[in-house]
Each structure stands twice: as structure tokens, then as C-alpha cells.
């Protein structure tokens, strides 16, 4: 079966991101960051519906007890998309009003990790990575990033991947990770994206432990081995793919969000579905169920 890429939701989102698959309900959750819209795509019906949160939402995770945990402009929130009920947890960067949360992921124990970035230009290294524990305590791990991105954990939970999308950095790092304490080791360079067309954006890990990177600005996706070797390149019909996430009943569909704004001049006609949600099929590769936030 050949690899096929199809736009399944021509959403025209400004910055589509944050895709998370819910294997219980067969829904894909994703966001349009600046619009503050939380989407859910029903694979059984093909219907995509959105709920406005009221402020930019960078990423989300499913909760074990139901509902969502969000990393938004004003920090961490609990949110029930069915009732609209919301509870503010904390804002670790209330002292940085120009910052917002961007990318995130849960570890194997159900901790929620998310990173921040300065929103708008000029770009400055004011982003940091945070860990939200089950007891709702927040810990800052590392700071000094331009655009925090690419968070994902290895299948055994003992490696943490993260990246910085900034054009002057464009690096993916890997840290040894202690799943019992939630403590990462010192980051080491995993993959320098300068040799490929796309800068590192969102990432995910497949069942074989390989890391998938959305090559934002490069019209491509990349699959990297556990040793950081480029194994596969998939051409995309949009310039700015942002976040890959395996889903579907067999966890064998690679969903990919994308950006619809700020496209390179003269490319608009080439990418009428920019900002949409895409499905990559025929890979012959499966993903992993996403761990739910423990609280």
C-alpha cells in the first residue's frame, strides 16, 4: 500500500497544532493556537467541531478522570469541553505577559510537560519547559529557548525529546529520563535539522521508538531512528506542517496539523489547504496510545 497524504479537514486554521489521539472515543483533539479554538475530529463521521476557549491555547492532554488539561496563554487549566466548565490551575509565567505556552506532552506516569515562548517579534530566548505533576505542582526544568517544541517520550518512558524551532537554532535534543521522579538528564543533540528543508516543530514517537518531526517551513515530515539517523522523508502539500500524531482504530494513521498564516509569498496557490488537518496512510507503522494526565 503506497503512502498517501490527504487533507481531511480544510480548516484554514491560523496555527493548527497540539494533536492528541483519544483511543477511548476515537477522536483527534487539536487546536488553533492564536484563535483559542479547541477542535475534535470524529474519524467515524468525518466531522470536525470546535470550542472557543477565549485565549490562545498551545497544547492539551486528556485527563484520566475525563476532560482536558490545557497549556494556554495564562497558564495551566482544567477544561471540560462538554459543559464548558473550567478551572485555572496556575500561571508560572505571570511575570512574562508576552509569553504563551506552545507544545507539550505527557510522560508515562501521567505528568504533563509543556513549553513556553515569546509571542510575537522580535524573537527572544525567553521560553522554558515546565512539568505539571498530579498534585498540580509546577516545576521549571530549563529556560533560554526561543520556540519550545517537539516534546515526546520514548515507548519505555526513559527518553525525553524536545526542540527549538528558531531558525538560528533548529535543533532536536534528547535527555535520559527517570519516569519515577520525572527528572530529565542533561540534553544531548539528537538531530541537527540544518541538512533538511524543515525546521523542527511538533514531534511524536512510533511503536518502534522512532521519532517523527514535522518539518515546518520545509513541506516535509521526517522519521528519525533512535540514533538520530534520518530514515524517511514524506513530502507534504503544505509548507508548514506542525504536529504529527498517530491515531485511528489501529493507531496506524499519522494525523498532521498545519499553519495557514504567514506563508511564503507566491506559494498560496500551491497550498490551498494550508491550515488544514491531514492524514498520512500506508506507512505500515503504528503509534502509541497517549498517556492521560494523572489528575
Write the SSE topology.
Elements: E1 4-9, E2 16-22, E3 27-32, E4 37-42, E5 47-52, E6 57-62, E7 68-72, E8 75-79, E9 86-90, E10 99-106, E11 112-118, E12 127-132, E13 138-145, E14 148-153, E15 159-164, E16 171-178, E17 183-184, E18 188-192, E19 199-205, E20 211-216, E21 220-224, E22 230-235, E23 241-247, E24 253-258, E25 277-281
Antiparallel strand pairs: 1-25, 2-3, 3-4, 4-5, 6-7, 7-8, 8-9, 10-11, 11-12, 12-13, 14-15, 15-16, 16-17, 16-18, 19-20, 20-21, 21-22, 23-24, 24-25
Question: Can you describe this structure?
Answer:
The protein is mainly beta. It is built from no helices and 25 strands. The chain has strands at 4-9, 16-22, 27-32, 37-42, 47-52, 57-62, 68-72, 75-79, 86-90, 99-106, 112-118, 127-132, 138-145, 148-153, 159-164, 171-178, 183-184, 188-192, 199-205, 211-216, 220-224, 230-235, 241-247, 253-258, 277-281. The strands form six sheets. Strands 14, 15, 16, 17 and 18 form a five-stranded antiparallel sheet that branches. A four-stranded antiparallel sheet has the order 1-25-24-23, with no helix packed on it. A four-stranded antiparallel sheet has the order 2-3-4-5, with no helix packed on it. A hairpin with a 4-residue loop joins strand 4 (37-42) and strand 5 (47-52). The relative contact order is 0.18.
Amino acid at each position: 500500500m503506497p503512502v498517501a497524504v490527504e487533507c481531511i479537514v480544510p480548516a484554514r486554521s491560523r496555527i493548527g497544532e497540539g494533536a492528541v489521539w483519544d483511543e477511548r472515543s476515537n477522536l483527534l483533539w487539536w487546536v488553533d493556537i492564536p484563535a483559542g479554538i479547541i477542535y475534535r475530529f470524529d474519524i467515524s463521521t468525518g466531522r470536525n467541531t470546535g470550542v472557543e476557549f477565549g485565549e490562545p491555547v498551545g497544547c492539551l492532554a486528556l485527563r484520566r478522570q475525563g476532560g482536558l488539561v490545557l497549556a494556554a496563554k495564562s497558564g495551566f487549566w482544567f477544561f471540560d469541553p462538554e459543559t464548558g466548565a473550567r478551572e485555572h490551575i496556575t500561571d508560572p509565567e505571570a511575570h512574562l505577559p508576552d509569553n504563551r505556552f506552545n507544545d507539550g506532552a505527557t510522560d508515562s506516569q501521567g505528568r504533563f510537560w509543556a513549553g513556553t515562548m515569546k509571542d510575537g517579534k522580535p524573537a527572544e530566548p525567553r521560553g522554558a519547559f515546565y512539568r505539571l505533576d498530579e498534585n498540580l505542582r509546577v516545576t521549571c526544568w530549563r529556560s533560554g529557548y526561543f520556540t519550545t517544541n517537539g516534546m515526546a517520550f520514548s515507548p519505555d518512558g526513559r527518553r525525553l525529546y524536545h526542540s527549538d524551532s528558531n531558525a538560528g537554532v533548529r535543533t532536536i535534543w534528547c535527555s535520559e529520563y527517570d519516569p519515577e521522579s520525572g527528572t530529565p538528564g542533561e540534553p544531548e543533540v539528537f538531530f541537527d535539522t540544518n541538512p533538511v528543508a524543515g525546521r523542527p516543530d511538533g514531534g511524536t514517537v512510533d511503536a518502534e521508538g522512532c521519532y517523527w518531526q514535522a518539518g515546518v517551513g520545509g513541506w516535509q515530515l521526517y522519521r528519525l531512528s533512535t540514533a538520530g539517523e534520518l530514515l524517511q522523508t514524506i513530502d507534504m502539500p503544505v509548507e508548514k506542517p506542525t504536529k504529527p500524531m498517530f491515531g485511528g482504530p489501529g493507531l496506524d494513521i499519522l494525523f498532521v496539523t498545519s499553519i495557514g498564516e504567514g506563508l511564503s509569498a507566491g506559494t498560496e496557490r500551491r497550498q490551498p489547504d494550508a491550515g488544514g488537518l491531514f492524514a498520512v496512510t500506508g506507512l505500515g507503522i503504528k503509534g502509541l496510545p497517549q498517556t492521560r494526565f494523572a489528575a
